[in-house]
Specification:
- The complex is a heterodimer of chains A (744) and B (101).
- With 744 residues, chain A is mainly α.
- Chain A contains 29 helices and seven strands.
- The longest helix of chain A is centred in the C-terminal third of the chain and has 72 residues.
- Chain B has a single domain, classed as Helix Hairpins (Orthogonal Bundle), CATH 1.10.287.3510.
- Helices cover 76% and strands 0% of the residues of chain B.
- The radius of gyration of chain B is 17 Å and the shape is elongated.
- The chains are: A mainly alpha (744), B mainly alpha (101).
- The interface between A and B is small, with 11 and 11 residues.
Chain lengths: 744, 101
């Protein structure tokens, strides 16, 4: 450990960026794929079949993965400290001192994420071909999936926080679209909206943290600017160079500033973490993730397990230099992570929907990741992110395979015995379960135990500025309980799904018949499509690849106490996560670390044996008995601790009531005013029309009438008789003569 | 002694009789005769003013022109009356109202 610290401090220097103008293609290719399928997919699908759609979608993902691999090999050719590829496309906005570039950057951390997103993303695209083959809106599905990949890659590769936020919102949009993919089902559309709205709350924290950090650097609120500061920036490379490098004075300045009675940096870290809480489904913003299972299962695997939900972890790791300066923020992150890990694990015990089990498991595992990055073991958090991406994707896709085999039945009580008919799904599911439970050989053990060990050795955490030395060990204890629970509920889902006899609804319903007599059990799966069958090769091949990844990822992080040198992934990430070296973990003897690893395995074993005793082969009656015995507690936990009910009462209903009230105000007062104005206008219009019709028209008509009548009368004067005219002439002459006399 | 006034009175009488004839006669020929009376009433005045006025012969010359004019007028007038008669089989001026409205 000592040599790492020394190595880290010595190596800290401004990042040297290597230009790589082709980096943009990584997010651009999926974006082009999304646009292609969105614009032409429907017609192509109708004319050429579904093949035309997925060839493009999978093709662009594979191409993006290929570019990522090229970037990886380029990076391998560089010195570790110089592993920073940059591609500034254009400057999107300038409002001095703010400048927002559309620029992409890759450092070792981003590289790891990009490889996960494009690699696992490609696999899940391939899996979707089989899973979605009956879907009429096939083209729409793949357009959304490509859109998600583009947004996620933008998030991961953005070289500034504004663009990260753009990608952050982009993945939120794609997530919304895909959760509500079957939007004709009101519940599913509502689940999409819920995810979106809950994420908005987190986004508020993200933005607030971002802006406060920016303003702090700009010297707002009379805090003054740091003497060595090069000015505020959103570019995280420049931020890191300002804050993390010794001698700039920016770090000291930021640590000294207080806002609202709190250390300003702690506030920034906590607010940014609120954003991460929303995106990564941490307490108390976790409520959307279980509902997000309404989306197609490959979506759950890609977005709601492997990639998007880890964006919060990525954000904290990306800003490690900010968090490392603020023990308060770190304590907050670790505490929330630990609580979430424990909380979500308990809910997993009683869920019967296989996807819900996995959803709560994801929430719990994200908690582990936050414990890792929270206590300062940034690489361990990132490592758990990578291993989790593999085994959770394998689990979700395995569940997808099962769900498809059972004709879209998700309730594990109506499964069972599938291991015999679906060997590939069963074995890959078992391997992934093995990994998530934390048994050695599979990768989950290495990442989880590294996190647990770091949590135990963390004595530097603070809460609201108060040092809490026992927080680290307390979180460790909570996580150990959560790990036991993880092992329990994952093996429970495995046993309920793959062992025992099939309880599915071929004939009747066996919902409460936990030990059903086996309608359509393994023997009669052959006739027609009634019984469950193994999924097609495009799906099983992906499962095998992911399960293999879940095992092989363990080589990335073999612990230092075993091998004597730092794990490969830690060495790889070291140039990115420089702040990790300055975190003061307490030193303990190696023997103790190995003992703690033994404890981790013990926890997993306890969970496994418990699940085996209760659920293996569907033999035991104990689960039903326990459920009946603790019915109240069971239903409380089954309803996810009634958090949703609480939110419904505290947030949703008041909001809806407020909205109704405002709507009524709108309807009565504002509409009334508008309608009154309209009525007055209409009245004036009528009045005007009446004046027109009667006065003006009357005048005009009057002139016409008088003229016509006068003409009618005067025409009689023309008699045609010469003598009458003569009388007129004589009369006129007489008149002139008379006038000559009368008028002097 | 016969003075200018006597002549004017005779001229005025002739004019008035002619006017009454034109205004009251229903026979078109009678009306034409009334017109002759009016013209000759004027002729008497011309000659009288010529005799008593400063320019010696002007009145007489004017009277000669009027006689000429009257002849022409009578010719045209009688031609019209003839035409009316041929059309309407009457020479009653009250019947000849084709030009009424």
């Amino acid at each position: 450990m000592e040599h790492e610290a020394v190595h880290g401090l010595e190596a800290l220097a401004p990042i040297v960026a290597t230009p790589a103008a082709w980096l943009r293609w990584v997010p651009l290719l999926p974006l082009l794929g999304a646009m292609w399928n969105a614009a032409l997919g429907k017609r192509l699908q109708a004319r050429l079949g579904k093949r035309a759609v997925h060839v493009v979608a999978v093709g662009v993902m594979t191409a993006a993965f290929a570019v990522a691999v090229v970037a990886f090999s380029t990076m391998l050719g560089l010195e570790p400290e110089a592993r920073f590829l940059e591609d500034s496309v254009w400057t999107a906005a300038v409002a001095d001192p703010l400048r927002i570039d559309l620029g992409f950057a890759l450092d070792p951390l981003g590289m790891a994420m990009v490889l996960v997103v494009t690699g696992i993303g490609t696999l899940i695209h391939v899996f979707s071909i089989g899973y979605m083959h009956e879907e009429p809106a096939y083209w729409r599905y793949f357009a959304y999936l490509n859109l998600f990949a583009a947004a996620m890659l933008t998030l991961v590769m953005a070289d500034n926080l504004a663009l990260i936020f753009f990608g952050w919102e982009g993945v939120g949009l794609a997530s919304y679209l895909l959760i509500g993919f079957w939007w004709r089902d009101r519940d599913k559309a509502a689940a999409g909206m819920k995810a979106f709205v809950v994420n908005r709350i987190g986004d508020f924290g993200f933005l607030a943290g971002l802006l406060i950090l920016f303003w702090l650097l700009a010297g707002a609120w009379g805090t003054g600017t740091a003497p060595g500061s090069a000015g505020p920036t959103l570019n995280w490379r420049e931020l890191r160079d300002q804050i993390a490098l010794p001698g700039t004075g920016v770090a000291e300045h930021l640590q000294a500033v207080r806002l609202l009675g709190l250390p300003a940096l702690g506030l920034v870290g906590m607010l940014l973490f609120v954003g991460a809480m929303g995106k990564s489904a941490q307490l108390p913003l976790h409520v959307w993730l279980p509902d997000a299972m309404a989306g197609p299962t490959p979506v759950s695997a890609l977005i709601h397990a492997a990639t998007m939900v880890t964006a919060g972890v990525y954000l904290v790791a990306r800003l490690d230099f900010v968090y490392a300066l603020s023990p308060t923020a770190m304590g907050w992150v670790a505490l929330v992570g630990g609580l979430t890990a424990c909380f979500a694990a308990t809910i997993g015990f009683v869920q019967t929907d296989i996807k819900k089990v996995l959803a709560y498991s994801t929430v719990s595992q994200l908690g582990f990741m936050f414990v890792g990055v929270g206590v300062g073991a940034f690489w361990a958090g990132a490592y758990h992110l990578v291993t989790h991406a593999f085994f959770k994707a394998a689990l979700f896709l395995g569940s997808g395979s099962v769900i498809m085999a059972c004709h879209h039945e998700q309730d594990m009580r109506r499964m069972g015995g599938l291991g015999k008919v679906m060997p590939v799904t069963r074995w890959t599911y078992l391997v992934a379960t093995w990994a998530i439970a934390g048994f050695p050989v599979a990768s989950g053990f290495y990442s989880k135990d590294e996190i647990l060990w770091k949590a135990f050795t963390a004595r530097h955490l603070e809460l609201m500025g108060v040092p809490v030395p026992w927080l680290g060990p307390a979180i460790w204890a909570a996580c150990l309980v959560a790990a036991t629970g993880t092992s329990f509920y994952m093996f429970r889902s495995y046993y309920m799904t793959f062992t025992g006899s099939y309880r599915g609804a071929v004939g009747g319903h066996g919902e409460h018949d936990a030990h059903g007599s086996g309608h359509g059990s393994a023997e009669d799966h052959g006739h027609g499509h009634q019984g469950p069958r193994e999924s097609p090769l495009s799906m099983t091949a992906v499962l095998v690849a992911l399960a293999a990844g879940a095992v092989l990822a363990s080589f990335l992080g073999l612990p230092a106490v075993w091998t004597g040198h730092e794990p490969a992934l830690e060495r790889w990430l070291a140039p990115s996560l420089t702040a990790g070296h300055s975190v003061p973990f307490t030193e303990f003897p190696h023997a103790l670390e190995i003992a703690f690893q033994g404890l981790g395995v013990l926890a997993a074993t306890v969970g496994w044996l418990g699940a085996r005793a209760l659920y293996a082969e569907g033999r035991s009656h104990a689960p039903e008995a326990l459920k009946a015995r603790f019915a109240g507690a069971w239903s409380f936990v089954n309803q996810a601790w009634r958090v949703d009910a609480l939110y419904d009462r505290v947030v949703v209903r008041p909001s809806v009531a407020l909205a109704r009230g405002l709507s009524r105000f709108d309807g009565v007062v504002i509409d009334g005013a508008v309608n009154a104005a309209g009525a007055i206008g209409r009245f004036l219009g009528r009045l005007d029309a009446a004046i027109d019709a009667h006065v003006v028209d009357g005048l005009v008509d009057g002139v016409a009438t008088v003229t016509r009548r006068a003409g009618g009368q005067l025409r009689r004067l023309q008699t045609g008789r010469i003598q009458t005219y003569l009388y007129g002439a004589l009369g006129g002459a007489l008149l002139v003569v008379l006038l000559d006399f009368l008028v002097p | 002694m016969i003075s200018l006034v006597h002549f004017l009175v005779v001229g005025g009488l002739l004019f008035t009789l002619g006017l009454v004839t034109v205004a009251t006669r229903r026979n078109a020929v009678g009306v034409l005769m009334g017109v002759e009376l009016i013209l000759n009433g004027a002729n008497v005045n011309f000659v009288a003013f010529g005799r008593y006025g400063p320019a010696a012969t002007t009145g007489q010359v004017f009277a000669l022109f009027v006689i000429l004019l009257a002849a022409a007028e009578a010719a045209v007038g009688l031609a019209i009356v003839l035409a009316i008669f041929q059309t309407a089989r009457t020479i009653d001026v009250r019947q000849a109202d084709l030009l009424r409205e």
